[in-house]
Amino acid sequence: MKSLDDLMRSIRDMADDAPQDAAPADLLLYAPCPVKLAMKDGVDALATARQARGERLSVHIPMGCTSVDPYDPLHMETDPDRLPAVIASIGFGDFWRKTFVERFVDPGVFTACPPQVLSPLHRDAGLPDPEGHYTIYGVTPYIFLVDTRALGGLPAPGCWEDLLHPRYRGKILMCGDGDDMADAVLLSLYKDFGLDGMAAFAANVRGLAHSSAMAKDAGGSGPDAGAISIIPCFFAQSIRQPAHIRTVWPRDGAAASPLYFLAKTSERERLADVTAFFSTGFSAIPSAAWFVPMDGSRPSALPEDARLKWVGWDYVRDNDLNTLRDTLYREFRAMRAAAQAEGA
């Protein structure tokens, strides 16, 4: 069996933008595609400022939305000294795995770095980690994009439970592409309504589509348009909405998929500018407004009644969220297939 070093080296050889330095990076950054370039510009500015002082900032930012990355097996690492000083990522991926949490998070390898002024949305949703390890500096909020014309007289859904009603059979498009899906949506539905609720939702879902495709097709009469699209706020706001298109923030909150970082306790002082970039600098990026920055020192562009739906830290601690997420992906696909076969 290959060692972790050999595995990462073989992946590095396949990747076009792979780091060639064998030493751990100061910053490993995975970011949502809509803000990735702006975040890279901000990090590059930090690196340039450090270079002017005779200091080096080692950074790895995979630039393809789906690309081969030598850091993919990083969760298998056993030595904390071989981890990047700051790991920034999105969703409930490898850095929420039970083995990674037990090995590095619970023992206190990482310490949270929240901003001085906390966004009320983050505070009310309970997003700050009470144990002080993860820093959720923003979220991808999943909301409803509703075509009232395509609903044909049906009421627009106002909360997540509404989406389980059989009146919406075949009218919902779910954010997803390939093996990927909106993890926060499935986790929240499962937590609140169990497998029966997930099955009811799956029966109503006509198909999966990439966020950009849903935004492009919204309001049209083509076969790919949906009456109700579960979509990230950024993409819903990116389109010119005709009169029959409504953006609906669920009453019980937009399902919140985390944008977070883990900063080594031992490196907080040396990399204070890097952690500050996430804690407060992220909110200065115009497009970040739709990713709900944790920093509350700037005005919010979101609706006054906007709320976030977070699975909760007790749920995070009591479950292996990464494994549960992958299990729900499989269950959801099986439920959709069963519903389609039943309706054929």
TrEMBL record:
Keywords: Signal. This is ABC transporter substrate-binding protein. It comes from Fundidesulfovibrio putealis. The lineage of its organism: Bacteria, Pseudomonadati, Thermodesulfobacteriota, Desulfovibrionia, Desulfovibrionales.
